[in-house]
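Task 17 of the worksheet. Students: predict the tertiary structure of the chain below and write it out as structure tokens. Keep your answer in the requested format; marks are given for formatting as well as content.
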Amino acid sequence: MFTSIAIIGRPNVGKSSLFNKLTKSRNAIVSDFSGLTKDRNYSYFEVKDKRTLLIDTGGIVDSKETMQDAISQQAWTAVEESSLIILLLDGSEDLVKEDLDIVQNLRKLNKEFLTVLNKADKKSDSTIKDDLAKLGIKIFYEISAEHSINISELKSELASRIPDISIESSDDKKIAILGRPNAGKSTFINKLVNEDRLIVSEIAGTTIDAISIPFEINNEKFTFIDTAGIRKGYKYNHKVEYFSYVRAIHAIEQADVVAFLCDASQNIVDQDLKIINMIITAGKPVLFVFNKIDLLSKKELSNLYQGKRMQSEFMENIYKAEISAVNKKGFKKVFTLTDRVIKKSKESFATSKLNKLLDKFVKNSSPPSFNGRQLKFKHIHFGGTYPTTLIIHSNQDKKIPSNYKKYLENSFRKELNLKSIQLKLIFRKSSNPYEGKKNKLTDRQTKKRQRLIKHKNKSKK
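Model answer:
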């Protein structure tokens, strides 16, 4: 089970500040001006080897103004989709009507929520705790999102409520199918399993929910997850489209590999690259599949590969396949590539092999110096999968130039054959085992040292 957590509350209680603190980002704009967040903002919250989607929302108010009402509706949409709600209140002020209305609505929706009082650093005569007790809310957390007060305690509580995703591991290989609307995702799966399992229509947006379909080929079990097409501007559209987007995110988390389907007759657009980048951010392997190639001539297909977007480094590191879902062409190559990528994404690498490669790369291109001090890489070891993580220990961690980091990343990707697989390099500063420790001199060494100092002082005279 993969969860979503939504942060809700009235305007200017610190939702965006808490969102940034929990996600360790600056994705949400923070200001003293209330009502700044208008749309749902999202990012991953990771704690104790668990991760979930965290959603920041606009302030909920009781207003007939069109914009304010739309912002509130966006927030309640996030509540409906999320499995846990953080109700954020201003701990320096008394409860107001908007706070009471939010609590009442949450109880009507039968949603589990965690009450958090922000701005604990401010001194005030607020009676909010007594007001909460009257509402039957006796357990709450007092924090200061701005000054990181009690944030660790809140993280621990959230970690205890996020299910362990590893429990769901199974033998079948999960493949999520993503793409823009009407790219042919449902047709591809229907033809693959030889059943009309999914509704197919020329009208874009027919698929709304993420649907899992088990399938077996060559005695290997697969589960295909068909998702709704992700439109441009999904965050601003009807709540059904946003639901579809969040479920697509969940499908990525559950999958071993993501096959991204693109309508070859429409070429690659920015929205395609945004969706692929979303998959990469999640740390999952990705396979790029051109569908509807039966509609293109050989020259048009060649021109497609010669385009600027296809020639970019971003796309060069991804396996590509060509299919015609309607005519059932190219399916074998898709299976071959997905199987190869899944096996490679789960591979761990020996420390000895990684260290030999690191020595080789450093000899081929010496690391630059910083403030007259040469960068030295001590050793490297394997750190985990999804994404494939390598941890490099050096005498510096924050002073390594980005171009040299990119050089190491590209070198490891090529040598380890990590095409279509996300690679993450973590640089850690090695501690000096002798730092803070001094050798204790023997009596004989102490006397000799004193004689040398005395001799040196005499020579100066």
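Marker's comment: Residues 306 and 312 are 10 Å apart (CA to CA). Residues 443-460 form the longest helix (18 residues).
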